[in-house]
Amino acid sequence: MLKTGAQHLESLRDGRVVYIGGERVHDVTTHPAFRHAARTFAALYDAKRAPENLDVLSFEEDGERYSAYFLPAKSKDDLAFRSAAHRKIADLTYGMFGRSPDHVSSFVTGMITRPDVFGRFAGNIQAYHRHLRETDSYAVYAIIAPQAGRQPEFYRERNLPLPTLQVVREDDDGVVVSGMKMLATGAVFANEIWIGNIMPLAPDQAAQSITCAIPCNAPGLSLWSRKPFELDASREFDNPLAYRFDESDSMVLCDEVKVPWERVFVHNDAALARKIYVETAGHCYGNHQSNVRYWAKMQLLVGLASKIAQSSGADDNPKVRETLGRLAAMEATLGGMIMGQIQGAESWPDGYVTFNRRFMYAALNWCTENYSSIIDIIRELCGGSVFQMPADSSIFDDPSLTRTFETFWTTPQSSAVDRMKLFKLAWEVVGSEFAGRHLQYEKFYAGAPFVVRNYNFMHAPWAEFHEVVDGLLDSYGVTGKLARVA
Ligand SMILES: Cc1cc2nc3c(=O)[nH]c(=O)nc-3n(C[C@H](O)[C@H](O)[C@H](O)COP(=O)(O)OP(=O)(O)OC[C@H]3O[C@@H](n4cnc5c(N)ncnc54)[C@H](O)[C@@H]3O)c2cc1C
Q1: Residue 359 and residue 421: Cα distance in Å, rounded?
Q2: Record: fold of 282-468
Q3: Ligand 1, atom 19: closest residue by C-alpha
Q4: pTM for the complete prediction?
Q5: Topology at the third CATH level for domain 5-278
Q6: 147 CB under 6 A from ligand 1?
Q7: How remote is the CA of residue 197 from the centroid of ligand 1, in Å?
Q8: Ligand 1: does its nearest atom lie under 6 Å from the Cβ of 146?
Q9: How high is the pLDDT of residue 159?
Q10: Residues 337, 339: Cα–Cα separation, whole Å
């Protein structure tokens, strides 16, 4: 079933507990902190059902249509289909929704290509995949232990409960969990939260290994939102991104939340808690989406850089053209890395295929390393233009101020209004709180940079590399004469 936007909005009015500071939010679809972003999520659902998108964003199986990202791939064509769907979704949000509904769903879909990894919970992960695709649900995740819980001795010595989410009780019908997890992007707009552990756990952390799915309105669950940027974005003209593309980030707090057994995927197994991501196609499918989403954002950034240069008339300057050429090369580099993941697909057991993992992790590293410098290039192109603009668009409420503004701010390249519009957007990308959050997001969404590099280390064919070195070393001897020709 493909959900409508209206059905998605309705599904968010479910009594979930959301806090903005000390304020309890009762309806995220109407609250001024979230209402526009909620509609952007709804629009993604409607876009999927539009006749022109149907074959890009969904597939048919046994007479029923499902969202494209629920398709486990059996061929390169399937991978290309998945990739194109991610691209379409990312284009609809200009790459601003990192955890759009195709992110965690892709993890789950990748996982069902190797259900055996889940051992006794293999049937649960398959059933969960069916549940998500049949209800067209939006799942997000919180798979990092909170920083507060990383020094257990502090809590033990004081006889305090550990803040990290863990199983506190087992009943006949499920487990009960309490504690906190970070950082569920999109959770206030989602239907379900996947709880888990992407970082390795020590053997004595078995209770924390719980991996499960919890509805966002589960009794005992609360979402503690960071400052929502939409709140201060009263006019779209002034904050065009914060106005409708703030996907939100929340800490997830559970106080004795009941999880039925059928939604448990790992329990009391510290090693397995991480294995399910890296020994299935889960992490690879999910982070391919991240790569594609970033690529869509790159097009906005490169286009914006060029328009900023045009606006100041600097676009003819050879140095500025070189800068734009460099940005264009970066955008194309990422595109090539994404295409390579499909071209170099890996075969998996049972006829499944996955994106090339080394190329995917290389792209992930590339994205993490380069975002700050890309933004800095755009910042330099902006010069002081962003601060030459009036504080906000309320000047247009006054005809006399509007006339003055048009007289003094118009340039040979563009009208005063167009310049203001462009530079308000530029500030949302390089300098506003929204921009700052995106800088942080692009650095950390897949883990700290050393973690991303570790994935690249793990998957590198070191034996092959060593063989090349050994081949060269073996091809000459100590005398300097060729000792042996292979
Ligand atoms: C905007 C945003 C959205 C996010 N969305 C999600 C989400 O949807 N779901 C989710 O589960 N998580 C999400 N995260 C959390 C993200 O996964 C974590 O921020 C990330 O894993 C890093 O963990 P940390 O923040 O605890 O930083 P830390 O691990 O504490 O790292 C902080 C700094 O210390 C350095 N450091 C720490 N330990 C070492 C070490 N051993 N060696 C070298 N350097 C070290 C790191 O490199 C980093 O610079 C999000 C984060 C952000 C910022």
Answers
A1: 38
A2: Butyryl-CoA Dehydrogenase, subunit A; domain 3 (1.20.140)
A3: 444
A4: 0.96
A5: 4-hydroxybutyryl-coa dehydratase, domain 1 (1.10.3140)
A6: yes
A7: 13
A8: no
A9: 87
A10: 6
